[in-house]
Automatic annotation (TrEMBL):
Residues 183-236 form the LRRCT domain. The lineage of its organism: Eukaryota, Metazoa, Chordata, Craniata, Vertebrata. Interacts with KCNMA1. GO terms for cellular component: voltage-gated potassium channel complex. This is Leucine rich repeat containing 52. The chain crosses the membrane at residues 244-272. It comes from Zonotrichia albicollis (White-throated sparrow). Residues 279-330 are annotated as: Disordered. It is found in: Cell membrane.
Amino acid sequence: MFPSGSPRSLSLVFLLGMASQGISCPSRCSCQYLEVNCTGQQLQEFPVDIPLDTRQLILAANNVSYLPPVELSFLADLVYLDCRKNFLGDDLDFTFIGVARLVYLDLSFNNLSQVTFSTFSHLLSLVVLKISDNPNLVAIEKDAFANNTWLRHLDVSRTGLTFLDTSTVRDLPNLRLLGLSDNLWHCNCSFLDFITWMMESDVHFPDADNITCHTPAGLRALRMPAAEAQLHFSCLTQLHKQDYVFLGLVGFCIFLAGTMAAWLAGVCVVIYEAHASKGEEEEEEEEEEEEEDTRGPRLRALLLRGRARHRPRPGSLLIPAPSRRRSAPR
Ligand SMILES: *[C@@H]1O[C@H](CO)[C@@H](O)[C@H](O)[C@H]1NC(C)=O
Ligand SMILES: *[C@@H]1O[C@H](CO)[C@@H](O)[C@H](O)[C@H]1NC(C)=O
Ligand SMILES: *[C@@H]1O[C@H](CO)[C@@H](O)[C@H](O)[C@H]1NC(C)=O
Ligand SMILES: *[C@@H]1O[C@H](CO)[C@@H](O)[C@H](O)[C@H]1NC(C)=O
Ligand SMILES: *[C@@H]1O[C@H](CO)[C@@H](O)[C@H](O)[C@H]1NC(C)=O
Ligand SMILES: *[C@@H]1O[C@H](CO)[C@@H](O)[C@H](O)[C@H]1NC(C)=O
């Protein structure tokens, strides 16, 4: 229990141990073998004179608002601590740093406001943790139980929680029971992941009828399986404001590109037409000069058409038609 080298400190520890066996017991508490029971004594403070070899300490239903970490750490063999129905609150971080053997911890019916990684991270043997009925408990950090790998029973019912990250509980390999009822669950799309985990896990959720959404108003009092169906639908079809802006921009770009393409096509057609008519005039002039055209099959076709038009009439076979203008009827 105490790492000490000299025989004198050893005997001191022995004497203290002897004293704890029966001689000392906190006032207003009852002490049995390795167990101290101070239930319902209106204690204002953590009792002094607790035997150092105590394994089980019951402080239930008192008025204790502070657990002193140092005095608690004297009880290095403590495995069972019941502090339900007290006024514990404020900051419990590092409170349990010296009671690493704790297996059972009951902090229900208190005034906890938050749980962080440092609150329970030293309790590597913790199996049962009850923090239900803490109406001011509004936040549990994502990795709050990351070190409590033996946790089997966790109760966070009847708190002020609106949200719990899935990884907070999903990664607990030994979890068998999880109390979630009568919280103010905010069923938004982030919470859908948690509900989906609930549906799929084989953890037991006591009082499942009372695990319901509190907000948004449209989902109030809806139980989790029903909420999952609703959320699945709305979260998968939901478009955010920026999505609309994006879609609008895409639409505008398409419109712009279309207009540009149409304009370009129009310009091309106009240029082509202008070229084509100019080419025809040139051909006609060339034809007048009776020169061979070598500019391509299309132009040649036009040329042929032009020649066909000016084929001489049968009656005037002998009269050569030197030019179109002169052959025109006068
Ligand atoms: C502690 O004492 C109270 C009454 O003083 C009693 O009701 C309770 O059962 C005791 N708890 C244990 C674990 O002995
Ligand atoms: C302890 O708390 C109870 C309930 O809040 C109260 O009625 C009682 O007066 C308190 N006792 C002391 C000694 O403060
Ligand atoms: C509970 O904690 C809140 C702050 O979180 C505090 O304002 C309030 O006074 C506390 N209540 C009791 C009974 O200690
Ligand atoms: C958390 O657990 C790891 C491994 O079990 C350990 O090394 C570490 O010290 C623990 N953290 C705290 C704050 O106790
Ligand atoms: C959902 O609600 C929680 C808690 O109110 C909040 O932290 C989270 O950002 C919300 N998620 C979305 C997508 O609104
Ligand atoms: C479940 O909720 C109902 C209505 O809010 C309440 O009357 C009932 O006591 C709750 N059940 C439990 C076991 O807390």
